[in-house]
Amino acid sequence: MTMTDTNEKHSRKKPASRGGNMRLLSLALFGLALLLSPGHDAAAQAWPDRPVTMIVPFPAGSAVDFLARATASELSDRLGKPFIVENRTGAGGNIGGAAVAKAKPDGYTLLFGTPSPIAMNKLMYKGLTYDSEKDFIPVALVAKSPLMITTRLDFPAKTFAELIDYAKKNPGKVTVGNPGNGTLGHITAELVQQFTGTKMTAVAYRGTVPLMTDLLGGQVDVSVDFMPTYVPQVKENKLKALAVTTSTRSKSLPDVPTVQEVGFKGFEASAWYAMVAPTGTPPEIIGRINKIVNDFLKTDKTKALLEQNTLEGIGGSPEDLKAFIAAELKKWKPVIEEAKIEM
């Protein structure tokens, strides 16, 4: 045997056994699993290890701001880290909505909002910088409340029927305020006009507080807005409530009729308040927030607080909120298209 033959013999490698191949494959798969999963899970398990920002896209003092702060306080207490409410107003809620849509989906930025930035604005705004259906993941539907049609005390119409009669006789002369272009108050005012065959002049404000201030001061005739902020003014006889927009009367003002009761069957509109997060937020974090919110809504203390502010706690799963938003978009799209509401 030559030296070359000897070298070749010793340089040949034995083929790997079938068991060795299986062990190598198992190790490779285990390594891949470790590579893909630990960062995501570890971050979700550690959350929150610093303050969480809850953006409210409307001014302080509004109904949504009050509810957001109550919810943030509960989350802070339960999770041991501050949940800080930050008001980012403007563009019908789009400024705050866009900030959350573009935020890192790590559970440290949430949106506590109303129908406009969470759903409706995509039907009205051209050039919107985010898509609420794609860029948000539902967390929880927190509460609902009626909208209310309210007038200044010295307005000629003292009932909803009288308002409709007056508006028909004076087309375009009645000014109807709303808390912002494209808000549910704005859309509901358009629905009122479509149902009643009237034409009023819309006046948009930057939130509920300035709208109510002008209504009290007589600068606008009528408001269509979320109900909670107006209840004290009505009870103190500073404003006149003509109707609520839900299918049943509100416990807060049981003498105020619904729009349906005064002759417009099928009319219904509800304000709602919900939490969403940037798409991609870990489901473990979404689930933890959802559970705390649902537990919060079930307590007697919370129920009493909500009732005092004309709110009805809802709760439910993130999937429930997703289905609800889809139904709202389907309901309001034809109203918005007929009214030609474009921003």
TrEMBL record:
Designated name of the protein:
Tripartite tricarboxylate transporter substrate binding protein
Q: Which InterPro entries does the record match to this protein? A: BUG, Bug_dom1
- Look up the signal peptide feature and give its range: 1-42
Instruction: Give yes or no: UniProt keyword Mitochondrion.
Output: no
Q: Does the keyword Signal apply?
A: yes
**Stored Gene3D superfamilies:** Bordetella uptake gene, domain 1, Periplasmic binding protein-like II
SUPFAM superfamilies associated with the record: Periplasmic binding protein-like II
User: So what family is this one in?
Assistant: Belongs to the UPF0065 (bug) family.
Pfam families noted in UniProt: TctC
Q: Which organism is it from?
A: Ferrovibrio terrae
The protein's UniProt keywords, in alphabetical order, are: Signal
